Each structure stands twice: as structure tokens, then as C-alpha cells.
Amino acid sequence: MQQRSLRISLFLALILLLGTIPVQAQQSIVRVEGTVLDLDGDPVVMARVVYRVVDSEDVYLSDATNAKGGYTVDLAAGLRCFPTAVLLGDGTRVELGTVAPSPAADGMSQRVTIELPKRWNPSAVVQNFSGSDRLYRSFVEDTAIVDRFRVETQLQRQDGDSVDRGLLNIVGAAQFSAIPEVEFGARISLVGVDVDGGPGGEGIGDTDLWVKYVLGATKDNRHELAFGAKLTVATGDADEGTGLDSDRSKLFVAARREVSWGVLTGNLGLQLNGDGALFGSTLDGKTALSVNAGAIVPWTHGIAFITELGFEGKRFESGEDDTSILGGVNVLLKEGSLRAALALGLSDGAPDTEITVGYAFQF
């Protein structure tokens, strides 16, 4: 009898003990749908939305957005949470502003609008100063375009077998808001000439004028195209050696392509050279082709290295082809860009060496 009473007592005690343990009701799961759009209202594809739980560090991650920017995420019913960030397909995290939390429920739909990071601009590898990565020998025949107005002062030294030249170049370029794809520009020079065993002089050199139209980045955002025309006006003195008394016009096409380590550049030009003169000798002008290729390699946020390889057919019948290779650096400063380059001549028609140091600023 006592054993029976003991068993009953133990059974009742077990029931009381189990009664003190709370029973967890299984939470139901609801599917929340949403859409991720950019500021233009276009869908953002291959992105995931991060949801954070109120008063907790717990997070939930949606599936990747589809072609329409749509996504789904499974949440516990009634869970108070809010979208806190968007992870783009390339791994970039875009933080969202303050979003009011809402309890998850069936049929819930949310719309997330984000400002996409600035797309790569092939005209501005150094992003905070568009055009600070301008080429040197192909300064004009390139897709880079100024942002409003630009002035650059260059000191240049060209050493040849028998002729040495020192130049002070003033380069100006302008872009107007009414036609933002177009750049107008001019380059004027003061030139000093030294000739071994012959006359030399100093004065104003020939003047370059140009206009070009930039088509902008292609749909894949990795290529950029431009075309334009450049006119060289014979403002120099042929008797002093500061000019060639020959007008020259050039049509060109140019391109840039983004690669993993920087930007590739290239241009192709057709030059129509008028007859000229130099130190009393007559020069017969001819039509010539020019081809240039280059690379721009950003090193830090404000420094880009530049290399160019160029060929220019002989301008006059008695002249020589101009082939050269160049290496340079552009350094972004607080108010402008400091530029320096060294070019080496690879043919008889090019200077043996050419040193360029310049400073550019925009306004």
C-alpha cells in the first residue's frame, strides 16, 4: 500500500514539474516580397536585401533580386524588423536610411529605393577631378572631356640631334552645359629654338584649335568613344624656327576601355598637311596617318600612371615618321593636378627626348 502511495506521489510530482515548463508554440513563417529600384526607377538586379530585427543583432538575408528587381525573404510571423542595407551583385554594400520597422505578415510587400554608387567614368579615372588623367601626346585625340573649364600650363623641353626646343604651352578647354558632350579647346605656345651651327630664335609657335564629341560610355559601361577635328594654324615664324608656315587639319576617332587594372586608350587620325617652310627651305606637305595607344593605371585615389606609344606619318615629303614612347604621372592636388612625363623618340622624325611638366586646374 505504501509503495502504491509512493508511486502515485511521484507521478503527481512529475505532472507538477512538467506543468512548470513553458510550452513553446511553433512560430509560423511568412514570405515577404519586395522590389529594389534605383533613383531613376529602374530595377536593381542580383542584389540582396538585409533585414535587421528590432532590438536585436539578428539579421535575415533575402534571395537575389530578379530582372524586375523583385525579391523574397522568409521571416517569422509578427517579427518586427526592417530593411537596413542592400548588397549589390559586386559585393558593394549600400546602407539604407531610417526605415520604420513593421511586423512580418502574409502579403506584406516592401519597396526599397537606393542610390547606386557612381558608375565608372572612363573620362575620369581619378574621379574627384575629371580629366586629371588626360594623356600627354594624345591630349586632344582622346575621349576624356573637361568638366566646364580647364587651364593647363606646361613647360616642355625637346632635344634632337641638331635642334633643341623649349616651349611654354598654355592649354585651355571648355565644355558648356547646353552641349555637355562637346569640348572646345586651344593650345598656344611660346617657343625658343637652338640649332647646332645655324640660326635659331624665339617667339609664338603654331596654334592648335579643336572640337570633339564624346559619345559617352557604352551600355556595358566599359567602353567610351569620341570623334573630332583638330586644326593647326601657322602662327609661328618659319625663319625663327618657331613654326613651319603650314596649316594642318586632322580628323580622329578615339576610344577608351576599362580593364581590371586601369584603362586602355587608343586613337586613329588622318592628317592633311599644307605646304610649309623652315629657315628659308620649302616643305611639301602630304597626307599622313597617326596611330596611338596608351594605358592609364591608377595607383592611389589621386595618382595615375600613364604610358603612350604613338606613330605619326611624316608631315612633309622631306621629313621622317615620328614614333615615340612616353611614361608619365598625374598627381591630384587640392586645387588641381600636377603632371610630368618623359618621352623617348624611336624614329628620326621624333625628338630624342621630350620632358613635360605641367599644372592643370578646373573652374
Outline of the structure:
The protein has 363 residues and is mainly beta. It is 5% helix and 54% strand. Strands 9-10-11-13-14-15-16-19-20-21-22-23 form a twelve-stranded antiparallel β-barrel. Strands 2, 3, 5, 6 and 7 form a five-stranded antiparallel sheet that branches.
Characterization of the model:
The protein has about 375 residues and is mainly beta. The protein folds into 2 domains: about 30-115, Carboxypeptidase-like, regulatory domain (Immunoglobulin-like, Sandwich), CATH 2.60.40; about 150-360, Porin (Beta Barrel). Helices cover about 5% and strands about 55% of the residues. It has 1 helix and 23 strands. The chain has one helix spanning about 1-20, and strands at about 30-40, 50-55, 60, 70-75, 80-85, 95, 100-105, 110-115, 150-160, 165-175, 180-195, 200-205, 205-215, 225-235, 250-260, 260-275, 275-280, 280-285, 285-300, 305-310, 320-330, 335-345, 355-360. The strands form 4 sheets. A 12-stranded antiparallel beta barrel has the order 9-10-11-13-14-15-16-19-20-21-22-23. Strands 2, 3, 5, 6 and 7 form a 5-stranded antiparallel beta sheet that branches. A hairpin with a 5-residue loop joins strand 2 and strand 3. The radius of gyration is 34 Å and the shape is elongated. The N and C termini lie far apart (about 105 Å). Residues about 20-25 and about 120-130 have low confidence and may be disordered.
